[in-house]
Amino acid sequence: MTKRTEISELGEFGLIQRLSQGNTQHSDTIKSIGDDCAVIDTKLLKTLVTTDFLVEDIHFDLSYTPLKHLGYKAVVVNVSDIYAMNGTPKHITVSIAVSNRFSVEALEEIYAGIYLACENYGIDVIGGDTTSSPKGLIISITAIGEAAEDKIVYRNQAKEGDLICVTGNLGAAYLGLQILIREKQVYLEDPYMKPEITEENSYLIERILKPEAKKKIIEYLKTENILPHAMIDISDGLSSELMHICSQSKVGCLIEEKEIPIDQTAYDQAMKFNLDPTVCALSGGEDYELLFTIDPKEREKIIQNEGISIIGVITKPEDGLKLESRGGNTFDLKAQGWVSF
Amino acid sequence: MTKRTEISELGEFGLIQRLSQGNTQHSDTIKSIGDDCAVIDTKLLKTLVTTDFLVEDIHFDLSYTPLKHLGYKAVVVNVSDIYAMNGTPKHITVSIAVSNRFSVEALEEIYAGIYLACENYGIDVIGGDTTSSPKGLIISITAIGEAAEDKIVYRNQAKEGDLICVTGNLGAAYLGLQILIREKQVYLEDPYMKPEITEENSYLIERILKPEAKKKIIEYLKTENILPHAMIDISDGLSSELMHICSQSKVGCLIEEKEIPIDQTAYDQAMKFNLDPTVCALSGGEDYELLFTIDPKEREKIIQNEGISIIGVITKPEDGLKLESRGGNTFDLKAQGWVSF
Asked: Which of A18, A339, B97, B174 is the most exposed place for a label (fewest CB within 10 A)?
């Protein structure tokens, strides 16, 4: 039988002590959990800061989200933002509000995922806050990273003629989510129905439940001495992120539909759902791939990395944001990112 | 008539644009809101990081908390943690989750309080996240500050013989809260009853609804070249904070009841409620005063500042944590800090 310890048995300090096992990996973590603040030695580098909220029933549904995966993902979405600046994530604070529906063991599952992600990405948990909530589970993580000033990549420096690159593949997370929503519906209608989660679609489900940030790509760019002009991570869908880069850089773009990387499993699943795979890639979101623009002289280095696709080119601002379809027609790109409200 | 704009009319990006007016005051804020991360130049100083959750119906009750005060307080509680390390607060990220019960104007009220606190304490808002919540209002703020390494004051360096100092006065916030709870009860029982919030108790209510952090004390210590050995801010009550310092520093303490600073209004109000004013000071919490220990040779400088009281002395660890009462008896100090769960 699984043990259930009530949070009230431990109290706030007991809980913090039990959950914060301490995982200091960096010598620049001067002080971690246990004082009014954590202390970091950033030396001569610049400090990068990003924060994200994960709210139950808004950002995740616990009926199909394992708690360990949730903790893992909560770290990854923040780490991804640090990579999107071409930085190195080093530290996070973790704040969690939970109702008494959750046991201490449930919280430990979330933290197991958090610490696993921290191990994989080389991050120290340096602080946080744990409190009760009248309803549901809310996780707020702030990630702190570092970068040399001349290596930081913003969204606003894309140049006309730049090649537009994207890592990995797009749309898979969205299709994974559609499978989970369908299976939940099936389960609600008939709890004895066997869920249709097969070996083929397990990849799609992993993409939504346990995404990874693109650490290796950032390392590759560094090794190859490629500094993107503009970069962003794809959390809301390709269209929405292209719009951010183009509007902040005051440029246009032309994307070739046939170059947008879509995994075969995702393509097949889209067909089964009667969805257009390209629309899933453009508007699906939650892929946590990187979108960046580079000087065309870097083309040779980029095409050697199988994890990067060149999907288009940066154009003049007056050309707008365009997609050239497989059939050779040109359409306006529309952002249909994820709407929280 | 007050205008009510639905959050859904603006959407997430529109909302962020409307709320993030931008308030960059520091040249070290290289990049604020509008990219994947904010970028800070910490130069040769160390970075201090702290975070706090404020959850509706756990940490505040909107039936008697004005939204602007709430925003103000959410900043102050974090700033107070930076001062408690003897640091200078410089930057915050602000994440807010709200249900659709809140209008855009309500969110603007919260932000008005946030920006007012930022103005008063010299802080730049550099990022955040705004999302919907299925129920209630949740604010998560992370504050980032800086300090020279040799000026940072931890909790674990109190020495035997140190004088124990406390700023301002204690117990007032707790008594203010008791008044608000009583008035809410009166209102719920009879909405036509006039609330008994008088000029005398308005100070107590201000202490709970709109606390201030001890910026001037930190400046005084710096001017007078006093470096405390240990310091903490009093958020959970004096007893609880003394326990943190003593257990982390492996020392004992002896507090004199008659030296604990209690405002006359707080004293009178405690009497009206049949409460012991000393117990309110020891266990009340939410005062956001500073508790610190100093070398006895600094006594002359400390007593010149009316905002600081010397309330006792650090003793040997085997002496334990003691309170000497007005009557000359000695009692064990017990922590009865605020219990969230």
From this structure: A339
Same domain, A204 and A325: yes
Q: Which of A142, A150, A239 to mutate against chain B (most B CBs within 10 Å)?
A: A142
B141 and B206 part of one domain? no
CA-nearest residue of chain A to B11?
A341
Contacts of B192 by beta carbon, 8 Å cutoff, 6+ apart: none
Distance from CA of A326 to the nearest CA of B (A): 31
Position A337 confidence tier, pLDDT thresholds 50, 70, 90? very low
Number of domains in chain A: 2
Contact call for B85 and A36, based on CB within 8 A: yes
pLDDT tens track for B140-157: 999 999 999 999 999 999
Tell me, what DSSP letter sits at residue A143? Answer: E
What domain range is B282 assigned to? 163-332
A93 and A228 part of one domain: no
What is the longest distance spanned by two Cα atoms in chain A?
Answer: 66
Average pLDDT of A34-50? Answer: 85
CB contact under 8 A, A95 and B144: no
CA distance A103 to chain B (A): 12
pTM, entire model: 0.90
In this structure, the answer to whether residues B277 and B235 fall within a common structural domain is yes
Distance CA A29, CA A42 (A): 9
CB contact under 8 A, A51 and B93: yes
> Could you tell me the pLDDT band of residue A177, with boundaries at 50, 70 and 90?
very high
Q: How many CB atoms lie within 10 A of CB B329?
A: 9
Q: Is residue B1 part of a domain?
A: no
